[in-house]
Amino acid sequence: MGDPLKILAIEPYYGLSHEMFLSGYQRYSRHAVEIWDQPARKWKWRMRGSAFHFAERARSCPPQDVPDIIFASDFLNLADWRALCPQRFRDVPCVLYFHENQVNYPRGESAPADHHYGWINLSSALAADRVLFNSAYQRELFLEVVASTLQRMPDYVPPGLTSRLRDKSSVFPVGIDFEPHEKIRDSYRLWSNPEPVILWNHRWEYDKDPDRFVDALVELRDRGSRFRVVICGESFGRMHPAFARASRELGSRIEHRGFLPDAKAYLHRAAKCDVVVSTARHEFFGVSVVEAVSLGCLPVLPNALSYPEIVPPRLHPHFLYEDTPPLGEFLAAFLATPPLEYAEEIQSAVERYHWRHLAPVLDNDMEALASC
User: Fold this and answer.
1) Are 154 and 47 part of one and the same domain?
2) Does residue 210 form part of some domain?
3) CA dist 265 to 170, 262, 269, Å?
4) What's the predicted TM-score (pTM) here?
5) First-residue to last-residue Cα distance in the chain
6) How is 317-345 classified by DSSP, letter by letter?
7) Are residues 119 and 189 in the same domain?
8) Do 109 and 132 form a contact (C-beta atoms < 8 A)?
C-alpha cells in the first residue's frame, strides 16, 4: 500500500444524503479526501452552471495541489468541467457518482417534459473514466432509458454508446456513518411503545406518494388498529395536500409532524418508532429507510424499485408488500403480528452500508483507477 491518494470530491449540491455520503467517506477513507462544494439549492442552476465555478477554482489551484482522482456527483456537468479546466486537471481520472439522475427521474403530473438535464447526465457519464450508481436498479434503468432515447435521434448516433457506459459502470451503495445511530438505538427497546409508532421520514412530494400512505393510515384507523404516527419528512415549496389530510383524518394519533433539521433530534425521534413505511413510486436507494432500520425500526416497503436490494431475499415476504392486498391490509396484519423474530437479521443486513465496511472498498477502486 503506497502513499495516500489525493481525492478531490466535487459536489454542487452539498446537503442531505450528498453531504452525508462525502463527509462519511472523508472520515473513513485511508486517502486524503478534499471536498469542493456549493450549497444544496437551485439544483437546475447547479447542473447548468456549477462547472464554470469549479473550473475557475481549478485554475487557481497550485500545481502541487492537483489531485490524483476527481470524484464528482451527478449534479456536475462533468463534460463541461473537463473541457474548461486547465490541462493539468483534464488529465486526472474522473469518477462520476449517481445519487440520482435526470434521465429517468419522474416528473410531476403538471411538470412539462424537460430532457435537457438528462442529456447533461449522459454527457457527464460519457466524459467520466468510471461511473458509479448507488443501486443496480438505478444503473439498469439509466442504461435502458439511454438506449431507448438514443434510438429517437434521427441520425448520426455513434454506435455502442450504451455498451461503453455499461462497461465502465458499476454499483456502489450509499455509505452511511452509523456511529451516531449505534449510540442512540441502544437507549430504546424494540416494540416497547403502548401502541406501535409508524414513521414517515420521506419528502412530502409526488414521487414518494404520500397520498397512498395517508390512505393506508385511514384504513388502519377504520379497521380499529391501534397505532401512532410520526411524520418528519421534508417539504419543498408548497405543502403537499396529503399533509393537511393526514392532520385532519388522524388528529391526535400524530405524535409529531414537521421536518427535524437537527440530526441528533431526528435520530432520537426515529429510534422511538417501531415501523418505517415507504409508499414511494420512485427510489434509487433509500437512505431514510436504511437509517430507520439501523435505529431499530422494522420496514414495510414496496417490492419494487431499489428496496429488494436493501432487504435480504429470504426476508422479502415479511417486509416487502405487493399492490395486492392493499397496503392498509398488509400494514394491519403487520402491526397485529410483527415479525420481531427477524428484527436482528434485518438490522444486521443494513450494517453493510456502514462506511466502516464500504470505505475500504471504494479506496481500493480509487487506487486501481489511479494506477491505470
Assistant:
1) yes
2) yes
3) 35, 5, 6
4) 0.94
5) 16
6) HHHEE-SSS-HHHHHHHHHHS--GGGHHH
7) no
8) no
Q: Name the 3-class secondary structure at 250.
A: helix
Residues 311 and 361 in one domain: no
Q: What is the CATH number of the domain that holds 187?
A: 3.40.50.2000
Instruction: Answer for the pair 142, 98: CB distance below 8 angstroms, yes or no.
Output: yes
- Residue of 120 and 107 predicted with greater confidence: 120
Q: Is 251 helix (H, G, I), strand (E, B) or coil?
A: helix
- Say yes or no: 168 and 241 in one domain: no
Domain count for the chain, please give it. Answer: 2
Q: Calculate mean pLDDT across residues 167-188.
A: 93
Answer whether residue 1 is part of any domain.
Answer: no
For residue 262, the enclosing domain spans: 179-352
Give yes or no: residues 166 and 280 share one domain: no
Which residues, 6+ apart, have CB-to-CB distance to 248 below 8 Å? none
Residue 335 has pLDDT above 90, yes or no: yes
Nearest CA among 319, 311, 323 for reference residue 348: 311
pLDDT tens-digit map of 233-269 = 776 656 677 778 888 989 999 999 888 888 899 999 9
In a domain, 154, yes or no: yes
Q: Residue 208 corresponds to which cell in the numbers above?
A: 414518494
CA dihedral 307, 309, 315, 316 (to 10 degrees): 50
Residue 171, domain member (yes or no): yes
The CA distance from 223 to 150, in Å, is: 50
SS percent in the chain: helix, strand, coil, step 5: 50, 15, 35
Residues 6+ apart with CB under 8 A from 273: 197, 198, 199, 230, 292, 295, 297
